[in-house]
Amino acid sequence: MITFRLLEAAAAFLIAGALGALITARRGRRGAWVSVVAVSGAAILMVASAVRAFRGGGDPEVSALPIRALGAALRIHVDPLSAVFLCLAGPIALLTTLYSVEYMGRFVRDGLTKYYPVLLILFLAIGGTVVTTDLFWFLVFWELMTLTSFVLVIFERESREAHRAGLKYFVWNQGAALGLMGAALVLWRRAGSFDFEAIRVSLATLLDTAPVTGHAVLFLFFFGFATKAGILPMGTWLPDAYTAAPTSVTAAFGGTMTKLGIYGLLRVFLHLLPLGPATTIWGIVIAVAGLTSLFAGTLSALKQDDAKRLMSYHVIGQVGYMFFGVGAGIALMQTDPLLGTLGLVAGLFHLINNSLYKPCLFLGAGAVEYRTGSRSLSALGGGLGGVMAGTMACSLVASLAIAGVPPLNGFTSKWLLYATGILGAESSFLLPVAALVAMFISIVTLASFVKYVAGAFLGAPVVTPAGAPPIRDVPATMLAPQYVLAGACLVVGLAPFAVLRLVHQAIVGLPSMIGAPDFASLLGGSNTTLALARDGITLASWAPVPLTAVLLILGIAAYVGLQRAGGVVTRRVPVWACGEEENPAELRYRADSLYRPFKDVFHGMYPRMPVVRFEFPDFLRRTLDLDHWLYQPLARGTQGAVRGVSRTHVGIPQVYLLWIIIGAVAVILTVLLVTGGAP
Amino acid sequence: MLTVILCLVLLLPVAGAVMAGHARAEESRGIAVRAALAAALLAIWAAWSAFPLGYDVRLGGLPWLGREAGAGLFGLLLDPLATILLLVVTIIGFLTVLYSHGYLTEHNQEHHGTPEDQGRYYFWLLAFMASMVGVATAPNFLQLFLFWELTAVCSWSLISFYRSATSLRVGFKAILMTHAGGLFFIAALLVMFAQTGSFDFDAPSRMNENLRGWVYGFLLVAAWAKAAQVPLHTWLPDAMEAPTPISAYLHAAAMVKAGVFLMARAVSSGWAVPHGVGLLMAVMAFVTMLVALSFYFLQDDLKRLLAYSTIAHLGYVLLGVAIGAMGSPVGLQGGVLHIICHAFGKATLFLCVGAVAWITGSRSISRLRGVARVMPITAAAYFIGVVTVTGIPPFAGFWSKFMILAGAIRLPSPMGPVIVTLVLVESLVAFGWMLRVGQVVFLGPWTPTGVERQPILLPRSMKAALWVLMLGCLIAPVIGIPLVHRIAP
Fold this sequence. Notes:
The structure holds two protein chains of two kinds. Chain A is mainly α. Chain A has helices at about 1-25, 30-55, 80-105, 115-130, 135-155, 160-190, 195-210, 210-230, 235-245, 245-255, 260-270, 275-300, 305-330, 335-370, 375-380, 390-400, 410-425, 430-455, 475-495, 495-510, 520-525, 545-565, 585, 595-600, 620-625, 625-645, 655-675; strands at about 60-65, 70-75, 530-535, 535-540. The mean pLDDT of chain A is about 90. Chain B has helices spanning about 1-20, 25-50, 65-70, 80-105, 115-135, 140-160, 165-195, 210-225, 235-240, 245-255, 255-270, 275-295, 300-325, 330-360, 375-390, 395-410, 415-440, 460-485, and strands spanning about 55-60, 75-80. The interface of A and B includes residues 114, 136, 167, 614 and 620 of A.
């Protein structure tokens, strides 16, 4: 009950904040600060309820707002998995709202009435999605999330690209959501209720009695969640929509909303679906989908010039990693619980890490856009590092984290993913291959973020045009969120143990995780070293702090030993252009010049779906137009007939007498005919 | 007490109509708004106090019909189903009158109204409201029929309100087609009375299987004509010649709902509709939805687009009712809920289009661009209307559509999934198209049409009506769900 009250209060904060922001939207920044206050209240309450869930398994389920005819009610229960997502959603919501305060000043032609209230309702929907244990309300929150995020994508009223992107986003996701609705209805038919427990029973019987329908239902679930997560090819909406939305919103999407696709997968395939042959099949499907996405998504990122677009393709790639880990885990769970759990923990841990560095990257790109007005890496031409040092430092940390450079957080989760793949060789030779692909893609990630950091920050300092104010770093409210996220990347990288324990708790708390190993036997009980062991033999280990210390010492030693002792002198001179006099700007190595061979080879890597132009067949239109061939001819016919009758009115008595006689004869003849002449 | 209130709900609009018809132009507006407001408030009060009990009172009769039907033939009935329609017609009726207050002025860039017309306008509008109240509270088929035909007369007069050649022609077309349906209603009444000696709502269920099928079939044809269902749908898009508030009220929220209300009434009293009739109703509802959908893509006039959308959504209601008739009461509950949810959503949409035309003088999708720049509230209302009728939670349409689908999935095997799939496909396509049209018309850079008065300001009454309707789009299910729960066998 306390959890329920906490969440109720969080919802009240958000709704009140939305109303407050709606009223104060026209008064400068007041609406923004109202929203920040509301979101911080909600974030604290969300984290508090999550902490309760981690501590003692949470409070029992509470239900409200019943709809009797449907057997649906707003059932609220926070289990450790929900708690993980609450812990992410609350703080990231707060950071992105805080960032918006200054950032949204960029948009002078659009009012903020359609920003803060909608953003707060989006956070409400995200929170609602992860805490309800009723499939109906899950759908309600899910679609509310789509609706509010659509409004945010089309925020720029006069940008046609934003509208196109928004429409594409909404139609794809609405289609997927309708699929979810269909699946939910099929399960409800047997269960008579939308409660997760009843649905679990219903899904098990459905798979036994009507396997085709059962798998169709699972397909609809998979399709719905994969679309939201941006998995190929349904994710075609993602780069467009992420690029079109204001960057603060993009960060919120990347940090929370897209991740709910993974939440949905875990809920359905490990909560609603009992362990069995179906889990193995669908685990493989999920893993393969993830692998394709991480490959195609990340390679497509390499050739992007727009910083946000580049990162959007990485969203697809990164979600691919999570799908791969989660899918492999689900598939292996029945045969090899140790490895299965490892894959799931790796996938979920990667999700947490991604929610830290991905928003940080987006916020950095937004900061650059805020100061320079541009997102094109070629146009930027580098050199911002000197004037936007804070932003650069955060972006660098996040870039290294996403590329999986130790000791940052991205490395640890990727290490676990690779371990799952390599150790899975016993089950299938494909798993190590997949791990190799993932490693290769990790290098591609590094390459593309080298491009980003170099293209935006490194190189000679930018020269601002005469008269324009010099470029400075962004205001504190925009920097602070970046510092927090980058700091979190570092901390989680160095001390992943506590977070991994919570992730493990979240995973093994799911009903289908039968036979899952405890944390000590999975990753070792130590608080300094992660040790992967099987049958008592340690197969691999990673000790972040000692190893980092060693690397750091070696690095310093190398610097001191080589640079200083060797007496190297750094000279700052203009680039030598073989004696030709060239404009220094033209001699820059621009971002779009990087990775040419890759671009040529992987051109069109990412499938693009053409919009089919639909011509309505003319004959069909004529057939359907009943007026044309039925009613108008009928009316004309009637009119003609009536006119014919009216012609008999001539006004001459003799003619009328004739009519009377003809009529009388006709009547007599009829009577004779009917009676047959009998009297 | 309740009898008095209900009689007042019925008579206040009549009194208002007579007074507004005789008053001078500027007075008639005020009279109409007050009468409609009073009726709406009393209706809400009546609904509130009758909610736990249900309410039925019989007053007089026609002596020549004999003992069975003679005494207590007429009267008032306020059960959950009647409450739904009563609330729709009075609340949205009031909002329409309020909106008309600002709409029918010389500042209207689409039709420059003349003050002398106002009395006539409000007379017919309030008379219409009264006859809809009569339809909603009728205790038997006979009384329902009387008010049913009255609505047709009012509708005819209002469609032809501008008295141009086109509007006279389409008004005639409308009354011809709906009245043709009315003849089937009479046939049903006669068969019913001849067989059972009663006009009660459950009278058909007391008849033998064969005749019962015919009676329900006749009622169905009458409902098709009134609710503009294929093949009797062609009058509705043409009726868009009427002033926009009239289109919103008569042809989206109220009159067409009489048709589906009749079927909901017939099915839910006795639950004895033969399976064949139920199936026919469902199939034709589908045909209607798809035919209407196919016309979406050809429309350039926003109002005609909305008219086709209305046709499709009445198809949804009838589909729900048909699902109820085939043995799945949740479907009927969803259908009835859709009456109120769709009424709020579609009235919002129509009044938005009215506001746009009021300012810009145009309703053409290909001409209007970036209207949100000058009319932000109207634009917001349009998008809320779209998500309401296409069913995106938390807005109203979602709840009713979901209940219809839940009813459908309970039907025996192949039918349920087929219906669900078709409905989902239809709603996705319709949703995509309406959203696209909204983006084209409202978003993007603002392109004036050239006839706007400066500064561009909507009258306060029109804005107020839009605000209340937007709120209604959100809370309609809160009102509707407890009511429809009580409609069950």
